[in-house]
From TrEMBL:
It is a multi-pass membrane protein. The keyword Transmembrane helix applies. Keywords: Membrane, Symport, Transmembrane, Transmembrane helix, Transport. This is Divalent metal cation transporter. Its main location: membrane. InterPro entries: NRAMP_fam (IPR001046). It comes from Duganella margarita. It is found in: Membrane.
Length: 440
């Protein structure tokens, strides 16, 4: 929960026993997985699935290099976002409000809300289409049910219970790994394309690269992971912001590193399996245009069989149920932080009406767009492109925040993370400029 209605009283030093509990590392590797794993899994939402499917179908294995390149970059920027939340004790929006002009805050938060709402619409529509193909019936009604269910779960379940639900939903992504393993893939050809990619300078190629970057390195993921670190901090009575509890820093920063490296690795592994699957099936059979994730699943059926079709389709539904709450939640955290509203998924509806109002509103507006003439196919792809464009100024602000002692105290990010973060920002900026130059 973040609120500035009253100044917080000074926090007394922890007694030795409590300090020992706070410093104790999580047991085992799995115990260290949390915000990073959920963030990485949410990255492979139906919008991302459609983008990776289009890339594989249209360019074969020639886009694999983008996922190799983005992995260390997304690890860097997500780890930095997580550290800002855990070290400062506040989400990104609150930190931006405190250290940057109001116009910049409102511009970034407004663009984030726009992009997330479009993304929710695209994801919910894809879930409805996938459910309709598997179960029969009207896609719009499945979409409406998915949107309402996502909103209800966020409002009704307390944070700790909700996080457990999200962790289980990450298993849905294994469907794409299994699908890829059922195919006989030309690994030498894939390796050659990854090391020596067939680059091209044209509108379709560059726009697809930006779409992949935008769906892999997305602004809503920065806000979400930082806010989840704050939620975990508030949920632990023995924990404090690291800049005021240096004795906890070593274990917590190590946990963030393991969590983020694992979560982003899982994310890009799944993305690569989707790309390889569609390249080896759809692209190899001359199907080079994929409008949605559901269309990719349908096109798989006559080529790879009913089993691959069912796995691909169920994965769309599972990842959508994971991603929609993250999209709506990240927008709510951002707006609530900007407006100084109470914000925490651990609070009941009566204690944070405005925060939950944003979650419900963004989810229902996105769901309602499925019943309009908005083309979900175009929304899927262009929401990823929009995320790529918005990501650049957001990353610049994140990097400046993480390097300021007024935000991070003595725990400003390391030189290695600083280099990686600015490299990620630069790569994304170059990709966006290249896209606009080819459009022109």
């Amino acid at each position: 929960m973040e609120t500035e209605a009253h100044p917080a009283p000074p926090v007394p030093p922890l007694p030795p026993a409590a300090a020992t509990v706070a410093k104790a590392p999580a047991k085992g590797w799995l115990g260290k997985l949390g915000p990073g794993l959920i963030t990485g899994a949410a990255d492979d939402d139906p919008s991302g699935i459609a983008t990776y499917s289009q890339a594989g179908a249209q360019f074969g294995y020639g886009m694999v290099w983008t996922l190799i390149l983005t992995y260390p970059l997304m690890v860097g920027i997500q780890a930095i976002s997580a550290q800002i939340g855990r070290v400062s004790g506040h989400g990104l929006a609150t930190n931006i409000r405190r250290h940057f002009p109001a116009w910049l805050l409102y511009a970034l938060v407004g663009l984030l809300l726009l992009a997330n709402t479009i993304n929710i619409a695209a994801d919910v529509a894809a879930m409805g289409q996938a459910a309709s193909m598997v179960l029969g019936g009207g896609a719009h009604w499945y979409a409406a049910g998915a949107g309402v269910l996502s909103a209800v779960l966020q409002v009704m379940l307390p944070y700790r219970s909700y996080v457990r639900v999200l962790k289980w939903l990450t298993l849905a992504l294994l469907a794409y790994v299994v699908t890829a393993l059922t195919l006989k893939l030309p690994w030498l050809q894939i390796l050659h394309a990854a090391v020596l990619p067939p680059l091209a300078w044209n509108k379709d190629y560059i726009t697809t690269v930006v779409a992949i970057f935008g769906t892999t390195i997305s602004p809503y993921l920065f806000f979400w992971q930082a806010s989840q670190e704050v939620e975990d901090l508030r949920a632990d009575p023995d924990a404090r912001p690291l800049k005021r509890a240096s004795e906890q820093a070593r274990d917590q920063l190590l946990r963030i590193k393991i969590d983020t490296v694992s979560g982003m690795g899982f994310s890009n592994l799944v993305a690569m399996c989707i790309m390889l699957t569609t390249a080896a099936t759809l692209g190899a059979h001359g199907i080079t245009h994929i409008g949605s994730s559901a269309q990719a699943a349908e096109a798989l059926r006559p080529i790879a069989g009913d089993f691959a079709f069912a796995l691909f389709s169920m994965g769309i539904i599972g990842t959508g149920l994971l991603a929609v709450p993250v999209l709506a939640g990240s927008a709510a955290y951002a707006i609530a932080g900007a407006m100084r509203w109470k914000n925490s998924l651990e609070l009941q509806l009566s204690g944070a009406r405005k925060f939950y109002g944003i979650i419900i509103g963004a989810t229902l507006v996105g769901t309602a767009l499925c019943f309009t003439n908005v083309d979900p196919i175009q929304a899927l792809f262009w929401s990823a492109v929009l995320n790529g464009v918005i990501a650049v100024p957001v990353m610049v602000v994140v990097m400046l925040l993480a390097s300021r002692k007024s935000v991070m105290g003595a725990l400003v990010i390391s030189r290695r993370l600083r280099v990686l973060g600015w490299l990620c920002t630069g790569v994304m900026a170059v990709a966006v400029v290249a896209m606009f130059s080819t459009l022109g």
